[in-house]
Amino acid sequence: MSQMFKISLPDGSVREMPEGSTPADVAAAIGPGLAKAALAAKIDGELVDLTRPFKGDAQLALVTSRDEAEALELARHDYAHVLAEAVQALWPGTQITFGPATDDGFYYDVMAPASREPFGMDDLPVIEEKMREIIKADKPLRREAWTRQQLIDKWTADGEKFKAEWAAELPEGEELTVYWSGNDWLDMCRGPHLPSTGKLDPQAFKLMRVAGAYWRGDQKNAQLTRIYGTGWLNKKQLNEHLTRLEEAAKRDHRKLGGEMDLFHLQHEAHGSVFWHPKGYVIYRALEDYMRRAIGAAGCKEVKTPQVMDARQWEQSGHWGKYRENMFVIPDETPNTEDEGPLVSDEAEWMALKPMNCPAHILIFKQGIKSYRDLPLRIVENGCCHRNEPHGALHGLMRVRQFTQDDGHIFCREDQIVSEVRDFCELADRVYKDFGFKYAIKLALRPDNRIGSDELWDKAEAELRDAVVDAGLATEEYGWEELPGEGAFYAPKLEWHLTDAIGRTWQVGTIQSDRMLPERLDASYIGEDGERHRPVMLHRAIFGSYERFIGILIEHFAGKLPVWLAPVQAVVATIVSDADGYAAEVTEKLKAAGVRVETDLRNEKINYKVREHSLKKVPHLLVVGKREAEEGTVAVRTLGAEHQKMMSLDEAIAMLKGEATAPDLK
After folding, report:
1. Cα pseudo-dihedral 613, 618, 621, 622, rounded to 10
2. What are 616-627's pLDDT values in tens digits?
3. Out of 52, 386, 464, 539, which one is annotated catalytic?
4. Known catalytic membership, residue 408
5. What distance, in Å, lies between the first and last C-alpha atoms of the chain?
């Protein structure tokens, strides 16, 4: 008689199932509706295929489309496999590599056969149709365990050199698996997968674009084609996503940055921003705002060197863990002769700073510090450089040169909670001044970490208590704890802003660090007369000015709040007879602190309105002969249907109020 396993369900009930049973059998035993709806299962918390047999007594939760996060992950993974199968069916000889799920879809890296050019956008409709054919065929997705040698032999025989290379590096003793799609196509994969391709909605995906990608991300390796798609559980979700993408395209900060003449990027300075006068007005307005905010919070601004000796980075630990992202510089005069190497073997090395932390510790270490000197709060609008891959660069959102509103608080153990609480309250004021809603999250210890569990318990409790003290650990503020998401040396608090179209951006952060003060030998004299290590709190609110400006442009679709707008008003004439009055209006607005320009061109007023609307000027003050005689202006506000007639004094008062930063009102 076969052994019986006790399978505990989320509702508290227990079902006895014979050895060899699967989650699919449990679903069928409960009812045909659940059997049809089940997509996968969680056995003792692990997401697995419905056909994975139980190994003993277990906790079981069946995954359906109502479990959206897990269901989407499964569906996107399966769309990637169907994509690879479709490409190989259409063009035999295509080599496949990897195809993961992404935040909103999937991709697969492939190499076209020698008989044709690399895949392009024109191929996507054909691939989509083949994918729908595979989905409608409802092919079972079946898991098999293989040995490493079986995998190597299979891929070598099929001419899949990339897969064969990867298989050869897999660990010998680990269970290795493939998944069959029907009986005619397979891929190497850990899984899990849906029961069959028919569980996918053939109308709920779309292939979006192609891009170049290097095998294993190394530009020295073969170039592949990465085919991107977006995948969802149903067509309604897909349509909503495509609508969001359309709206995001309209808000693209790169497009609006050009239209508004704010900045540009070019290959002569990969990943570095050329700020135009109008864009730099925004930058400076944010900088001034942040200086007032940190000054009111008792922070002192500092400035540290751009280049520091490699030995400093070695001592801090960055040279060993972060060097591939650093720009290194030889500390010697380059060879100017035609022959010979540019840099000798004897050159000492320095590096452009990728972050400000070690330099701030060097400031802390100047002079003897007492416990009475703490907390010491220093902040730097510090320019940093990180050697990001060219393919990862994206407008203002991911750059190589950026400026952080980077601060560090050196404090005693007993001051941590109050300092973090005060920072939470400061961040709350700042984000509300910009009109953002946010969620605050606590990233907890990762598996790969340093320090004892006791130390991690203490550090996590300190951050948690600070958020509670600030009254922010509530559903209203999206309070959530994220297991495994902390840095290897410390937990951290994260601020996730939500923009106007529902996207989230992780911006602010604060984390406690007991490691770097130890590595760089920072200390203070305690009340007991002994040396003690300070705790170092790393904090930022904007994150980087570049990225925050990009977020603002997209959040407001270029229609920035008047106090941030580079040009807050334009005085435009209808007829040349009003030129003198327009100049008078302009001077009075300038005297009131309004950033204003004058448009006296011999153009029709509707043309001027369209042009300044494209540049997102908040207010257009139209003046003609009648306005000059009456001392009035016709105010056309960006986005408003009708203009308003106002006296010049009323218009000046309105603009002066709107042009004032929220913290100064």
Report:
1. 20
2. 999 999 999 999
3. 386
4. yes
5. 81
* 492 assigned to active site: yes
Q: What share of the chain is helix, strand, coil (3-state, %, to 5)?
A: 40, 25, 35
- In order of 85, 255, 263, 281, the CA distances from 566 in angstroms are 52, 17, 12, 6
Catalytic residue among 95, 312, 404, 568: 404
Give the whole-angstrom CA distance, residue 159 versus residue 197.
26
pLDDT of 270 > 60? The answer is yes
Bridge partners of 301?
379
* 8-state DSSP, 93: T
What per-residue string of b and e applies to 492-528 under the rule 16 or more CB within 10 Å gives b? bbbbbbebeeeeebebbbbbbbbbbbebbebbbeeee
- The answer to whether the CB of 40 falls within 8 A of the CB of 49 is yes
Peptide bond into 375 cis (omega under 30): yes
For the cut 90, the answer to whether the pLDDT of residue 434 exceeds it is yes
Which residue has tokens 């010491």? 376
Nearest of 214, 197, 238, 220 to residue 82 by alpha carbon: 197
One of 76, 163, 193, 408 is an active-site residue; which one?
408
Q: Apex CA 400: angle with CA 399 and CA 402, to 5°?
A: 75
Residues with Cβ < 8 Å from 285, sequence gap 6 or more? 563, 564, 661
Q: Are 607 and 620 in contact (CB under 8 A)?
A: no
Catalytic residue among 206, 369, 464, 538: 538
Query: Among all chains, which residue has been given the structure tokens 């409960």?
Result: 30
DSSP secondary structure code for residue 81 in this structure: H
Beta strands per DSSP E along 503-657: 504-513, 524-525, 531-532, 535-544, 569-573, 596-599, 619-623, 632-637, 644-647
Each residue of 188-214: pLDDT tens digit? 999 999 999 999 999 999 999 999 999
The answer, yes or no, to whether residue 450 has pLDDT greater than 80, is no
Q: Is the pLDDT of residue 34 over 70?
A: yes
* 539-561 residue pLDDT tens: 999 999 999 999 999 999 999 99
pLDDT digits (tens, 9 = 90+) for 409-424: 999 999 999 999 999 9
Q: Catalytic: which of 199, 360, 441, 492?
A: 492
Question: Half-sphere exposure of 17 toward its Cβ, with a 13 Å CA cutoff?
Answer: 26
Q: How far apart are CA 484 and CA 443, in angstroms?
A: 7
- Which helix (H) or strand (E) element contains residue 287? helix 277-296
Flag whether pLDDT at 344 surpasses 80. Answer: no
For 571-605, give the DSSP string.
Answer: EEESSGGGHHHHHHHHHHHHHTT--EEEE--SS-H
Indicate if 383 belongs to the active site. Answer: no
Q: Is 270 a catalytic residue?
A: no
1 confidence band (pLDDT: 50, 70, 90)? low
Angle between helices 68-90 and 124-136 (to 10 degrees): 110
pLDDT tens digits, 220-265: 899 999 999 999 999 999 999 999 999 999 999 999 999 999 999 9
252 part of the active site: no
Name which of 85, 86, 70 is nearest 193 in CA terms: 70
When pLDDT is cut at 50, 70 and 90, the band that residue 6 belongs to is very high
Which residue shows structure tokens 């270490």? 365
pLDDT band at 173 (very low <50, low <70, confident <90, very high): confident
Query: Averaged over 363-385, what is the pLDDT?
Result: 96
Catalytic choice (406, 428, 499, 599): 406
Given the residues 189, 357, 384, 424, select the one marked as catalytic: 357
435-to-202, 422, 498, 539 alpha-carbon distances in Å: 40, 20, 10, 21
Q: Residue 15 forms beta bridges with which residues?
A: 7
